[in-house]
Specification:
30% of the residues lie in helices and 24% in strands. The strands form six sheets. It has an eight-stranded mixed beta sheet, with helices on both faces. α4 runs antiparallel to α6 and α5 packs parallel to α16. The longest helix has 23 residues.
């Protein structure tokens, strides 16, 4: 018989009745009935109930053992009587009557209670993450993550992709976030950077003649935490393809993602192929470039109706270049006045000047702005917003960007408050046709709006002949249930287009040559048309696990301040280590003690 186990704790069934077995695991629960002691023994695979009889020589010792102690039990499997079968456990039809018991490791009192559903304080959970991961929900999330990654690899290989690894120690690159820098010991004063993404390397692989690349890639960004983004590091399914059109790339990614979500969730996928929504349309209809299509509310631009109306508050906004967005909502006329008042307050919290509305209730139209509107304007609103009896229309008026963000937030709140968001579906979409450039009001200049390495629609001719703010790019995002899974693009693969695009954004050719020498030089030796994308692994698993916080699907995440409380990082290093790296510390004056010693190295 094996030293530790003949079976796992999730394996035994009725057909094993009478068998002599050996199990090892953690004491998950104990129930002392005086005449009998019941122990739920847990391992990676499940739970088995162990019965310790009072005449056993180890009965008293087992009573004293704390939860989470590790034991090995040898005994005989017995079928439970019909009235004692636990149908909630896969092993609930049997129990193991212990004949011998060995203590492998006695536990101290645990700082977390692992048998309940309560999460406990986050700092405590992260400090004792190895205990937190013993909890069933967290354990299942990490196993789901492993299986999702395995499935992704199989699916990408089936599509003809090869997996390559790209460097972790590389050069600093302006990717939009702060780099994590690594000082070089043998090159004093010089630094490596951890990659924010393998962007340049995967494009260089295409230039090198490889055709279809993927990688489960670690990425590093020194940025603040969000519910859907972990600080420090994250993983993505990094993809690049040569001689590919946008449509062909979409086809591959849709097949992979639809297969993953179908394999690991009972929720249905709303529409296939995934709908494609131009960026400009998404901002009007949904107020966001990552719309949650589960919410059955589509907004409408009604600026032209108010431009000549008697409602001067909106009329003046439109005259100064602003817009009016209407948010039509079905069957809310019966809501109490407080519902509308709270929504007005919410709009103000989002940065709006207020929120106007009209309500159609039977033969009546009600609302604070009714008296300012002519009959023909009301008729136009009914037609434009597809209004029927018992509907309401809310109005936001402001500069286009602010109007989109405010109305988008209101749309989501309405979906939540009215229970309109379906919980049994994954609704994917592509957001396409992003503008290549945008106007930065702070610097009063034209800047890149998305990815500077994207191919402009119309190529060099568009850059030379069109208003830059009208040039669209082959850039796209894939979104699921309001969560952006990835951005991607068909790449700019010719030096002349790259020079021109950066020139429009205010960069001299010398800056391009200095910042991106490897990519630019590579393009001079024959580069294939290519494109790619990089869906986030953490976000995919978060959606599949139905978790609202990305840390719940990462084995060892940092906290919101980018600290690993379990390992104690980031941490101070010794003066000797700093000397080897030719570094001195220049810390804020509020720092003291050992940290300040390094400033005098």
């Amino acid at each position: 018989m094996h030293k530790y186990r003949t079976h796992t704790c999730g394996e035994l069934r009725s057909e094993n009745d009478g068998a002599e077995v050996r199990l090892s695991g953690w004491i998950f629960r104990k129930r002392d009935h005086g005449s009998l002691l019941f122990v739920d023994l847990r391992d990676h695979y499940g739970l088995t109930q162990v019965v310790v009889q009072p005449d056993s020589p180890f009965f008293d010792e087992c009573q004293r053992l704390r939860l989470e102690s590790v034991i090995t039990v040898t005994g005989r499997v017995e079928a439970r009587s019909d009235e004692t079968v636990n149908h909630k456990m896969p092993t609930g039809a049997i129990e193991v009557v212990a004949e011998t018991l060995t203590i492998e490791s006695a536990s101290e009192p645990t700082p977390l209670y692992l048998a309940g559903d309560e999460d406990g304080p986050e700092d405590q959970r992260l400090r004792y993450r190895y205990l937190d991961l013993r909890r069933e929900r967290l354990h299942n999330n990490i196993m789901l993550r492993s299986r999702v990654i395995s499935s992704i690899r199989r699916r990408m290989t089936a599509h003809g992709f090869e997996e390559f690894q790209t460097p972790i120690l590389t050069c600093s690159s302006p990717e939009g976030a702060r780099d994590y820098l690594v000082p070089s010991r043998i090159h004093p004063g010089q630094f490596y950077a951890l990659p924010q993404a393998p962007q340049l390397f995967k494009q260089l692989l295409m230039v090198a003649g490889f055709d279809r690349y993927f990688q489960i890639a670690p990425c590093f960004r020194d940025e603040d935490a969000r519910a859907d983004r972990s600080p420090g590091e994250f993983y993505q399914l990094d993809v690049e393809m040569s001689f590919v059109t946008q449509d062909e790339l979409f086809e591959v990614i849709e097949d992979v993602l639809a297969g993953i979500f179908d394999e690991f969730s009972e929720k249905k996928i709303a529409v296939a192929p995934f709908p494609r929504i131009p960026y400009a349309e998404a901002m009007v209809k949904y107020g966001s470039d990552k719309p949650d299509l589960r919410i059955p509310i589509e907004m409408v631009d009604v600026s032209d109706i108010f431009a000549t109306s008697g409602f001067n508050a909106f009329k003046s906004v439109v005259a100064s270049g602003g817009v009016v967005r209407a948010i039509p909502v079905k069957n809310v006329a019966s809501q109490p006045r407080s519902f509308f008042d709270k929504l007005v307050g919410f709009a103000t919290e989002q940065g709006g000047k207020g929120l106007a509305y009209l309500v159609w209730d039977g033969e009546k139209v009600k609302g604070p702005i009714l008296k300012f509107l002519a009959e023909e304007e009301l008729t136009a609103l009914v037609e434009r917003c597809n209004v029927t009896d018992q509907d309401a229309v809310f109005f936001v008026s402001d500069k286009p960007g602010l109007a989109s963000s405010i109305s988008g937030a209101i749309r989501v709140k309405l979906g939540q408050d009215l229970g309109l968001i379906a919980d049994d579906v994954f609704h994917f979409c592509w957001v396409v046709d992003f503008p290549m450039f945008e106007f930065d009001a702070e610097t009063q200049s034209i800047i890149f709006s998305h990815n500077p390495f994207s191919m402009p629609q119309g190529g060099l001719e568009a850059l030379e002949t069109k208003d830059p703010l009208e040039v669209l790019a082959y850039q796209y995002d894939i979104v699921c249930n309001g969560v952006e899974l990835s951005s991607g693009a068909i790449r700019n693969h010719t030096p002349d287009v790259m020079y021109k695009a950066f020139e429009i954004a205010g960069y001299d050719p010398s800056v391009v040559e200095e910042q991106f020498p490897s990519l630019l030089n590579a393009f001079k030796y024959g580069a294939p048309p290519h494109g790619g994308i990089a869906p986030g692994i953490d976000r995919i698993v978060m959606l599949l696990a139905n978790e609202s916080n990305i840390r719940e699907v990462i084995a060892f995440p940092m906290n919101q301040r980018a600290q690993d409380l379990m390992m104690g990082s980031p941490s101070e290093v010794s003066i000797q280590q700093l000397r080897e790296l030719h570094l001195k510390l220049n810390l804020p004056k509020k720092q003291s003690g050992a940290e300040s010693d390094g400033s005098n190295i």
